[in-house]
Amino acid sequence: MHAQRQKIMWSPLLIHLLFIGITLSMLIPFLIVVIISLSDEQSILHHGFRIIPDKFTLLSYTYFLKTPDTILNAYGVTITVAIVGTLTSLILTSTLGYTLSRRDYGLQRVTSFYVFFTMLFNGGLVPFYILMTQVLHLKDTIWALIVPGLLSPFYVLIMKGFMAKIPIEIIESAKMEGASEWRIYAQLILPLSKPALATLGLFILFNFWNEWFNALLFINNEKLVPLQLLLVRALSSLDIITSRPEFLQAGINLDMSQFPKTSAKFAVVVLSAGPMLLVFPFFQRFFVQGLTIGAIKG
Amino acid sequence: MAYIPMFGVIVAFKNYRYDKGILGSDWIGFKNFEFLFKSETAFRITRNTVLYNLGYMAVTTICALAVAILLNEISKKWLKIYQTSMILPFFLSWVVVSYITNAFLDHQNGFLNGWLAAMGFEKVQWYFNAKYWPFILNIVHLWKAIGFSALVYYAGILGIDAELYEAARIDGAKRWQMVTNITIPQLTPLIIILLILSIGNMFRGDFGLHFFIPNNSGMTYSTTDIIDTYIYRALSEVGDISMASAVGLYQSFVGFVLVVTANYTVRKINDENSLF
Predict the structure, then answer these.
(1) What is the CATH number of the domain that holds A86?
(2) Where does the ABC transmembrane type-1 domain lie (chain A) (predicted)?
(3) Pairwise CA distance, residues B63 & B66, whole Å
(4) Do the domain assignments include residue A221?
(5) Under a CB-based contact definition with an 8 Å cutoff, are residues B124 and B110 in contact?
(6) From the list B84, B86, B189, which residue is nearest A298 (CB)?
(7) Which of residues 48-77 of A touch B (CB under 8 A)?
């Protein structure tokens, strides 16, 4: 009896300790990035990164505030891509998912397989590159960042799985009342699919926000560089940020030899990842709900 | 429509030249493939891709399952905090994660070398040493993926009929017995479906993970290079379109065969668990 009671007392505590450990290992890296972006360059040069640096400074952020063009431009590109992309993608995913979910649609099996097959087999990077540059001529346009992410077969299947659980009787009775197919979709199906739309919407939004691969392949135009590509380029050098003409002009009253190279890089990380991480908690309720419903069936 | 890009696949069988275009270039049959498989590269990138994917699959599945089962044992209030913090890394891009990794691994300034030095050990040149990378990449991958995988399994656990646990409790089952006799068997279909999906992707590596985390450092290619990073380099640095295309086709073809075989095997064993 005694041993039994001890077990009941101890195991939740152990589980909590374990989870606190995991939580810390998840959050500390974020904290570290913020701290480095606030560290004094001289302190980094002498002692390396430190959890508590000798000197905190806002210098790397003030540089970006004084010459905000590069960052603001990148924000503009990223936000445009994220909003246009997410809305269009949600419309496409939900219409296709809905069509596939209708059991009274004659070609359901064939179309489903057609969508699903793209998940299994594709030509790879080269045909994709040729298609984008030579067939669609999207190189150096903002569409190069939007179009490839518009339709993911995996999300279509999740959407289909969710919508297939809406009883077909609802659709049939709406039809009896004389509702058109489009009206059924817009006024019945979409409101009923809110959890799935919110979940997939969040995923798609993050995909567009974090998009760097297509930018790396297709974007050379300085005006179209999204945040993530700015980060990719800053990985090798900060020139992309410091060599812009605006920066050099502003450099008259900024001492470029004092430019906080390391902490500036991490400041860009904070600026690019920060907004999404702030958005995430507000979506989390839908996210967990949507996934819980969608994942059970798999 | 979706298969129009497939047209480009024929480049793999040609000696592609920019001036002649796709249709104008000369056919050379399987020469590109022959060249690839005669070099050591094919073996190295295939081995790396497959082994890393197997590693990620095993490590993430086991850890995420354990986390999901433990999440089910604690109160809802704490659950939210733990879950939120665990999923956060999932929403970062690999570029951002590579900066974080760099904060730890940087030769000069990194935390790890700082701690090693403080404890009196030699500093390690992480980005020049191939042997550390299997561990580093697995840890980084786990860090980013565990929250999401755990959530998927946790959702699966929530879907298990509560009556099963009720009955077990009446029969006097302990918590651990419930886990092994109810939770895990009930989750098996979900685990298998996810495994089939990842087996199909076994030839498709995570480009971002293998390109940015090792900083595209040439010294570590022997243990970090995968098919995807190889294709990218063949395309962007060497400019060999036909070769890159051949590798891409090889990758897709084997991946396709793999997923069909995996699904077939599962259907043989248990029809209910198969994907299609």
Answers:
(1) 1.10.3720.10
(2) 75-280
(3) 5
(4) yes
(5) no
(6) B189
(7) 48-51
Cα pseudo-dihedral B103, B109, B110, B111, rounded to 10: -110
Question: Is there a domain that residue A38 lies in?
Answer: no
Global pTM value: 0.80
Number of domain units in chain A: 1
Q: Which of B4, B76, B88 to mutate to test the interface with A (most CBs of A within 10 A)?
A: B88
Enclosing domain of residue A206:
59-290
Which of B6, B98, B190 shows the shortest C-beta gap to A127?
Answer: B6
The string of pLDDT tens digits covering residues B7-54 is 556 666 666 655 566 655 666 666 666 666 667 777 888 888 888 888
**Assigned token pair, A104:** 């009274």
* Interface check A33 vs B, CB under 8 A: yes
Residue A12 touches chain B, beta carbons under 8 Å = yes
CATH architecture of B49-223: Orthogonal Bundle (1.10)
Segments of chain B assigned to CATH 1.10.3720.10 = 49-223
Give the CB-side neighbour count of residue A180, counting CA atoms within 13 A: 3
Closest residue of B to A293, CA-based?
B155
In terms of Cβ atoms closer than 10 Å to its own Cβ (0-12, 13-18, 19+), residue A72 is exposed
Number of cross-chain residue pairs from A and B with Cβ atoms under 8 Å apart: 207
* Interface contact flag, A120 B259, Cβ < 8 Å: yes
What value does the mean pLDDT take over residues B161-187? 82
Residue A25 near chain B (CB below 8 Å):
yes
Give per-residue pLDDT as tens, A202-232: 889 888 988 888 888 888 887 888 888 888 8
Kindly report the backbone phi and psi dihedral angles of residue B265, in degrees, each rounded to the nearest multiple of 5, phi listed first: -60, -45
- B66, amino acid identity: A
- Asked if B232's CB is within 8 angstroms of A125's CB, the reply is yes
Left if phi > 0, otherwise alpha if psi is -120 to 50, otherwise beta: which for A246?
Answer: alpha
